[in-house]
């Protein structure tokens, strides 16, 4: 019997009507990514346009997790809306940088910063690059 080393936990908060903060803890991989996808779809159904993904508690993310983040980004930017990744661990940030996800999806330090970026409007090619 196989037991996940870091089972996924997702806490959902609504800081304001158009935004949702999803605090994710545990490994975000092929075994757990669909759980995040279900939460995102549910919040889209409820009219949320801005998705704040706090992944400070995610020690590992594979391509399944990256794909969920990118798919959500593609879906909400037409609303218009956005996906904002908050405080990825160094290992997850490295994977995001290597795969180019960090070029597409804004990475911020806090939920407050994510909301400020969301309020600033659609980011163009000259948006503040994250180091």
User: Strand order across the biggest sheet?
Assistant: 1-2-3-4-5
Coarse shape: globular
Oligomer: single chain
Query: Which value, in Å, is the CA radius of gyration?
Result: 14 Å
> What is the fold named in CATH at topology level?
Transcription Regulator spoIIAA
Q: What is the CATH superfamily?
A: STAS domain
Q: Please give the domain count.
A: 1
Poorly predicted runs are 124-131
The helix content, as a percent range, equals 25-40%
Order of helices and strands: EEHEHEHHEH
Sheet of most strands: 5 strands, mixed
Molecular structure report:
With 131 residues, the chain is of the alpha/beta class. It has a single domain (9-120), classed as 2-Layer Sandwich (Transcription Regulator spoIIAA). The chain contains 5 helices and 5 strands, in the order E-E-H-E-H-E-H-H-E-H. It has a 5-stranded mixed sheet with strand order 1-2-3-4-5, sandwiched between helices. Helix 1 (33-45) runs parallel beside helix 2 (63-76). The longest helix has 14 residues, at 63-76. The chain is globular, with a radius of gyration of 14 Å. Residues 17-118 form the STAS domain. Belongs to the anti-sigma-factor antagonist family. One of its GO terms (molecular function) is anti-sigma factor antagonist activity. This is Anti-sigma factor antagonist.
């Amino acid at each position: 019997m196989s037991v996940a080393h870091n089972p996924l936990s997702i806490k959902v908060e609504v800081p304001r009507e158009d935004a949702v903060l999803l605090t994710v803890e545990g490994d975000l991989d092929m075994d757990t990514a669909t759980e995040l996808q279900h939460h995102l779809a549910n919040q889209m159904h409820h009219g949320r346009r801005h998705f704040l993904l706090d992944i400070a508690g995610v020690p590992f993310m594979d391509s399944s997790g990256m794909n969920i983040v990118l798919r959500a980004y593609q879906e909400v930017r037409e609303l218009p809306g956005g996906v904002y990744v908050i405080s990825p661990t160094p290992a997850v940030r490295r994977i995001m940088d290597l795969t180019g996800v960090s070029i597409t999806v804004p990475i911020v330090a806090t939920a407050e910063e994510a909301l400020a970026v969301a309020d600033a409007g659609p980011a163009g090619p000259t948006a503040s690059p994250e180091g």
